[in-house]
Design brief:
This is Methionine gamma-lyase family protein. This protein has 416 residues and is of the alpha/beta class. The protein folds into 2 domains: 161 residues, Aspartate Aminotransferase, domain 1; 215 residues, Type I PLP-dependent aspartate aminotransferase-like (Major domain) (Aspartate Aminotransferase, domain 2, 3-Layer(aba) Sandwich), CATH 3.40.640. Helix content is 38%, strand content 13%.
Length: 416
């Protein structure tokens, strides 16, 4: 093989060590695969559901059933799954704009939300059409040093006009643990204790199928995520989903299209089969990516790097954070992940000022779906401490080879 004997035998040792975790992930895959399969069977998903609609897309049966299939898998009252959501950010924005009204206040209790949401939230009536521009006020409460919610501050920050509480399940670009569905259940319980009408919204990006339950099963009222991450199974070409309580999903649908139209229309433009098939594959592929992350953590720990989560820690998202010593490590790592991609392996990524992000970001994104991060990819904001965020892998083998290639090329450059 292409890698040195030393590296391959190290990889073998790591795989022996992580064997138990890989087995657990196999059991998770079986559980979630059955969950998806069972819902497909219940709704009699059929070939004719894949027909493409055009124009208004009235009575697109495939779309209607897909909404219900998502709702059922997430054990929610209702769902909306569309290619018209251009990204995760757009999907989350539709949910927030859908339920919030001028004069409302909302509060993220898991620290600052994901970078791309900062401009959605906006500030000082910035004239951009942000939430702030519409007179919707926002706060967040930083997590405690141990990564848990600061309930004392949260209680103090909830005002009379607070309408919605935001929770981000994934670590995003932060050096913290992701929140398990069990953690989220406890958050929901406490929030509803403070005031039962508060709407609990969860940014579920990167979380789907990483556990046997989803946050809607833990009492969350509204959930949003991207189809070019976990639930698209690597096949969805674009899109997002929202599931949760019927009235809130309807409000989000009104925001996506228009009041009075909501989720009743929307030509699927030939995407429906990929949405179904991707969803069917998602439990397996998420499992492959999780195994890849466990392997990556195990390997980089061998070289003395801090990882989050560690190889044996529980996981509730796809992201494997690895802390490097300096900027050169970071850039070399991301570039070598790109070199191990099936697509655009010849392209050398450089840090750039990506729209929506506050620091230059370098990204390895050699993916079949542009920006698709269920596929093997890596991101690193160029800022201290030098942390790379590795995620995805449509097959365990690819994720493993990507890690081996990265280590091998960093060794070759004298960086390890
Ligand atoms: C990816 C992500 C988003 C935004 O999704 P985009 O598709 O990049 O717009 C929001 N929140 C979290 C936690 C994410 O991982």
């Amino acid at each position: 093989m292409y890698f040195s004997e030393d590296l391959l035998s190290l990889a073998d040792r790591v795989e022996t060590r992580i064997e138990g975790r890989l087995k657990e992930i196999d059991r998770l895959i079986d559980f979630n695969q059955w969950k998806v399969l069972d819902v497909f069977r219940k709704h009699r998903v059929s070939d004719y559901h894949f027909a493409s609609s055009t124009g208004y897309g009235y009575n697109d049966r495939g779309r209607e059933v897909l909404d219900t299939v998502y709702a059922d898998i997430f054990k929610a009252e209702s769902g909306i799954v569309r290619p018209h959501f251009v990204s995760g950010t757009h999907t989350i924005a539709a949910a927030l704009f859908g339920v919030l009204r001028p004069g409302d206040h909302f509060l993220f209790i898991t620290g600052k939300p994901y970078d791309t949401l900062h401009k959605v939230i906006g500030k000082d009536r910035d004239g951009t059409g942000s939430l702030s521009d519409w007179g919707i006020c926002y706060d967040h409460v930083e997590l405690l040093p141990d990564g848990t919610v600061d309930w004392e501050r949260v209680r103090g920050a909830i005002k009379e006009n607070t309408r919605l509480i935001g929770i981000q399940r994934s670590r995003g670009y932060e050096w913290r643990a992701s929140f398990s569905v069990e953690d989220i259940a406890e958050m929901v319980r406490r929030i509803k204790e403070i005031r039962s009408e508060l709407i609990v919204f969860v940014d579920n990006c990167y979380g789907e199928f990483t556990e046997s339950r989803e946050p809607t099963e833990a009492g969350a009222d509204l959930l949003a995520g991207s189809l070019i991450k976990n639930p698209g199974g690597g096949l969805a070409p674009s899109g997002g989903y929202i599931v949760g309580r019927r009235k809130y999903v309807e409000l989000a649908a009104n925001r996506l299209t228009a009041p009075g139209i909501g989720g009743e229309v929307g030509a699927m433009l030939g995407t429906t089969r990929a949405f179904y098939q991707g969803l069917f594959l998602a439990p397996h592929i998420v499992g492959q990516a999780l195994k890849g992350s466990v392997f990556a953590a195990g390997m980089f720990e061998e070289f003395g790097f801090a990882t989050q989560p560690r190889w044996d820690a529980p996981r509730s998202d796809l992201i494997q954070a690895i802390q490097f010593a300096n900027q050169d490590h970071l850039i070399a790592f991301v570039q070598s992940i790109q070199q191990a991609s099936a697509i655009d392996a010849h392209v050398v990524p450089e840090p750039w000022d990506m729209p929506g992000y506050e620091h230059p970001v370098i990204m390895a994104a050699g993916t079949f779906i542009q920006g698709g991060s269920l596929e093997l990819s890596a991101d690193a904001p160029i800022r201290q401490p030098y942390i790379a965020y590795l995620q995805g892998g449509l097959t365990y083998s690819h994720a493993k080879l990507g890690v081996l290639h990265a280590i091998s090329s960093m060794l070759g450059k004298g960086l390890l």
